[in-house]
Write a structure and sequence with these properties.
Blueprint (H helix, E strand, L loop, with lengths): L1 H15 L6 H8 L3 H17 L1 H11 L1 H21 L5 H11 L5 H10 L4 H11 L5 H16 L3 H20 L13 H9 L2 H32 L3 H29 L1 H20 L4 H30 L5 H30 L3 H32 L6
Helix pairs in contact: 1-5, 1-7, 1-9, 1-10, 2-3, 3-6, 3-12, 3-16, 4-5, 4-7, 4-16, 5-6, 5-7, 5-10, 7-8, 7-16, 8-13, 8-15, 9-13, 12-13, 12-15, 12-16, 12-17, 13-14, 13-15, 14-15, 14-17, 16-17
């Protein structure tokens, strides 16, 4: 079940990331400004973020089997529209890119689905492994430009639509929910209100906005950044972005595993500090080899491990019947954390001709998150351990 859920996450994230590798081509074809290009790659994040809240609540109620099927099937629609006619105008790209964000909600399906199959002491590792599905963005980076160049612009979209259709069928007939899955009572609105009263919801949301938000921002904007800052070709920039993504993906289960053993707070404090250091280095736009590459790989490893550690924290503190709801809100915060930076970076580049200010802002946010983790979150975890009841109210 863990393997199938991870594959489903990867397939939907592949769809979610289709526009980013082609952003430079759309810029040339449609004459987009740097800000419009940033908006194009950031728009799918909106639905993929906010949509996680209702999808997480629905997963608590109806289970992962049903919701993986629905999310995968619905994502096929904007993918096909982009293949056939949606890529010929900025309006079409924005509208169908917005709807493409449905694929990003698969994360809020998988976390409660996987969580229900594992004992508390193994959930950090299991959810970290599931999180490797975010490697779907690497698949997109490696294949999208090549397929478009070899077979035409519609080819990567048609391939992804076919893969989504196959997975939707597999999810319906093969996936099964854990017999131990708790089913919440009451309305979805009441469940959302209860979820929002939990302290862990807001603590994890703040941290995930930095960790996963940083990952999403780089995964969608890094090709544009590398093309503008280092004059790389679209293919080279996409390959380097894929390397960033792969390292983050590999480190996500490592972050969950380490959290199970030494504690999520310690892991988060270390990795957020590392992000701040990497952002400060890159703010000076050093030569790409070796210092720039080192800075980006440091941030990739830290953001991946941090994303895994946040959900180890959720698994520790969230009540069993509220994991989907908490995951939805936290996932939304993470996605929105990834929506804002590309817009900021595009605006900064348009205004100054460089990205230094944007990276300094990232460093300041990561440093603030490090302090927040070492103080407030540490106290919340200690209080939970003393009281012996999850929730962090």
């Amino acid at each position: 079940m863990l393997a199938l859920a991870t594959i489903g996450f990867a397939v939907n994230f592949w769809a979610w990331s289709l526009l980013s590798p082609l952003a430079s081509r759309f810029k040339e074809n449609l004459g987009l400004s740097p800000f419009q290009q940033s908006l194009l790659v950031a728009v799918p994040v909106i639905v993929g973020s906010l949509g996680r809240i209702p999808v997480g609540l629905l997963t608590d109620r109806y289970g992962g089997r049903a919701m993986f099927t629905v999310v995968s099937a619905v994502t096929i629609i904007p993918v096909l529209c982009l293949a056939w006619f949606g890529h010929s105008s900025l309006a079409g790209l924005l509208v169908f890119g917005f709807l493409l964000g449905v694929g990003g909600t698969a994360f809020a399906v998988g976390v409660p689905f996987v969580n229900a199959w594992y004992r508390p002491e193994r959930r950090g590792t299991a959810i970290g492994i599931f999180g490797m599905g975010m490697g779907g963005t690497a698949i997109s980076a490696f294949t999208t430009v090549r397929l478009a160049e070899a077979w035409g612009l519609a080819a990567p979209f048609l391939l992804v639509a076919a893969v989504l259709a196959v997975y939707a069928v597999v999810a319906w007939f093969v996936l099964r929910d854990s017999p131990a899955r708790p089913v919440p009572s009451g309305s979805a609105l009441a469940g959302l209100k209860e979820t929002c009263r939990l302290g862990v919801t807001w603590q994890a949301s703040a941290l995930y906005a930095v960790a996963f938000g940083g990952y999403v921002a780089f995964s969608v904007y890094l090709p544009t950044y590398l093309e503008n800052a280092y004059r790389l070709t679209p293919s080279d920039a996409s390959n380097r972005m894929a390397g960033f993504v792969i390292l983050a993906v590999v480190m996500r289960p490592v972050g969950g595993w380490m959290s199970d053993r030494i504690g999520a707070v310690k892991v988060l404090s270390a990795v957020l500090a590392a992000v701040a250091v990497g952002a400060v280095i890159q703010a000076f736009t050093p030569p790409l080899m070796p210092l720039g590459t080192f800075a980006f790989l440091l941030m990739a490893a830290a953001l991946g491990a941090g994303s895994g550690a946040v959900f180890a924290l959720v698994a520790l503190l969230a009540p069993a019947g509220k994991v989907g709801g908490v995951t939805g809100v936290v996932g939304a915060a993470g996605g929105l954390g990834g929506f804002v930076p590309p817009l900021v970076m595009g605006a900064v580049y348009e205004a100054t001709g460089g990205y230094g200010i944007g990276l300094v802002l990232l460093a300041l946010v990561a440093a603030a998150a490090t302090v927040f983790t070492a103080t407030y979150v540490t106290k919340a975890v200690a209080r939970r351990s003393t009281e012996g009841s999850p929730g962090g109210r």
